[in-house]
Amino acid sequence: MVHQYKLNGYNIVLDVFSGAVHAVDEVAFDAIAMFETHTPTEIKAALLKKYGDRPDVTEADLDEMLSDIAELVSDGKLFTEDVYENKAFDFKNRHTELKALCLHVAHTCNLNCEYCFAAQGKYHGERALMSFETGKRALDFLVEHSGKRKNLEVDFFGGEPLMNFAVIKQLVAYARSIEKEKGKNFRFTLTTNGVLLDDEVTEFANRECHNVVLSLDGRKEVHDRLRKTVNGQGSYDVIVPKFQEFVKKRGDKGYYVRGTFTKNNIDFTNDIFHMADLGFTELSMEPVVCAPDAPYALSEADLPVLYEQYEILAKDMLCRKKEGHPITFYHYMLDLTGGPCIYKRISGCGSGTEYLAVTPWGDLYPCHQFVGDEKYKMGNIYDGITNIDLQQEFKCCNAYARPECKDCWAKLYCSGGCAANAYHATGSITGVYKYGCELFKKRIECAVMMQVAESLEAENE
Amino acid sequence: MKRIQTVKTRDLKESAKTGGCGECQTSCQSACKTSCGVANQQCEKCMEQK
């Protein structure tokens, strides 16, 4: 399967099953589009009719081009067959050691954001803080179920995790005390709204956290509209100086300033550019996940604008890089030579298998987006996974689990998509959240275009 | 090739031979939190080699 598209002056051909990417001229673009359904004679006739007045398009030249295309086919870089679907991997029996936990250390929050999928941190339940004992047991559970995997990821999440900072510190100290003996390497991530960010947290996070996610929606009016304090005041002025100070001290360690865009700011690139103006360079901006009748919900009608926004962003990022002050956008991070292997691309995000969320009480859920939904409770950190059927369901939820994805070129980029998005949109984790698919495909097209642009530029230098 | 330039990529079929170590990051955990961005992940082995 190939996917062909034109963007920012480039004609791009993706070969889905090999992962190959080709930048072609318009003649080759048309030839590739006809290659599987027409004879060489038919292709040449059509191309001569269309481009015959160009001196560089002769029959001999077209013969050479068709032979180049045939060479790519025989080299496994074009029209590659899907060799994974039938023989590939036995997903039911694949080893799925646990390697990551989302620790919900605080089911409470000091902000009252209208769109919060965690219902202002409470996940539709009681307010609660995780105790050290529960967190410690969760870390032990992770180590016990991680098999030979060395790198273990633990995310401090909420609500607002810094409302339980004392326990976070204790848990990190405990993890560090056992990692050598257990042969593990803990990587901690802290996701915070910034309200409680101070010198102590900064020093701690910069020493211990592999990554920090800082929640900011962009422009002041956009941020303050939905991210409010419990008294109904906007939080922008409180957090932005703290984030700036934090990032200044972060050095080259990982962080993301992460925003959510909604119907209120479909021109979200302006929020990303605002983040850049504030001095942040590692950026992530996500479409809101909410009920379709929410006043800020995105709709089908917004799609053309959102596509345009993603294109504006990609082009702008190329310019910024050329000018020597690049920014990173999470969804445009694409390492074509060092990206995920085919196993990862097929098996997906690992929710419910390699990745679990732990509530303040020690209950286990497939991921943070399922927490609070009783149907998706998988077990607890004391008794382990008790809902085996549910685990099996997640084990088999992969790039080949959805008939709708069969002919989709993007399935080895999204692995079939987010199980939580699918569930919330369709009632099934193996459903398809079509709206998310459309945005995802656009983002990948943009990300690949950026790689093509940079690659061709490097070659031509 | 005159009309076709191939960008350097990781061959997915080849990655079936060496991949599957499971050391890479679980997907959305450390960044977006609300979508599956497997393609955006790095291969841990490839990073080590770099």
Walk me through the structure.
The complex is a heterodimer of chains A (461) and B (50). Helix content of chain A is 39%, strand content 16%. Chain A contains 15 helices and 15 strands. In chain A, a hairpin with a 5-residue loop joins strand 2 (10-15) and strand 3 (21-24). With 50 residues, chain B is an alpha+beta fold. In chain B, 26% of the residues lie in helices and 8% in strands. The relative contact order of chain B is 0.18. At the A-B interface, strand 3, helix 3, strand 6, strand 8 and strand 9 of A face strand 1, helix 1 and helix 2 of B. Strand 3 of chain A pairs antiparallel with strand 1 of chain B.
Element layout with pairings:
The complex is a heterodimer of chains A (461) and B (50).
Chain A (H helix, E strand, L loop, with lengths): L1 E6 L2 E6 L5 E4 L1 H9 L5 H12 L7 H16 L25 E8 L20 E2 L2 H13 L6 E8 L6 H18 L2 E8 L6 H10 E7 L4 H7 L9 H15 L3 E8 L7 H9 L4 E6 L15 H20 L5 E2 L12 H6 L7 E4 L4 E3 L13 E2 L3 E2 L2 H8 L15 H4 L4 H8 L7 H27 L1
Parallel strand pairs in A: 4-6, 4-12, 6-7, 7-8, 8-9, 9-10, 10-11
Antiparallel strand pairs in A: 1-2, 2-3, 4-5, 12-13, 13-14, 14-15
Helix pairs in contact in A: 1-2, 2-3, 4-5, 10-15
Chain B lengths: L3 E4 L4 H7 L25 H6 L1
